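Consider this:
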Amino acid sequence: MSNPLMNAQIDGAIDKRFGDQYNYLIEMLSQKINSIESSIVALNQTLSAAEVDTGMKWIDGRHIFRKFYAVSLAVAGTTYTTSLGISADLAWIDHSYTFIQYATNSTVLSFYYVDATDNSICYINASSQLIVKYTSTGTLYAAVNYIKTA
């Protein structure tokens, strides 16, 4: 993040009478801002099987929550159903935090919903269940965002 006060200091626009004090205050302020920004990012990106408020809000002002699910894909090509255990008006898979770790410990960092050539699927059905079918063995880690039922 660019700090206009620090840019002014670098440009030499600060009155020299206050230079040392000003520099100290700017440094302390910058450290505090960076600390607060880091805390906000960490809070909003907590990855947990427990319910986490993401800090984001839906278009109607309700909070968006996230839970992480791990689904063991023990037999390739088998369809697995996992209850989300939530009461939600809307739920969706957050692709930015969803991936498969193969049994060999290599990972696929993104996961697609349907590919007719290999019959792989990953979606949430109307009964708030995570449905997964994949052609290899491993573990699916899925982040599910949702809006609680009003």
Observations:
- The mean pLDDT is 78.
- DSSP finds two helices and nine strands in the chain.
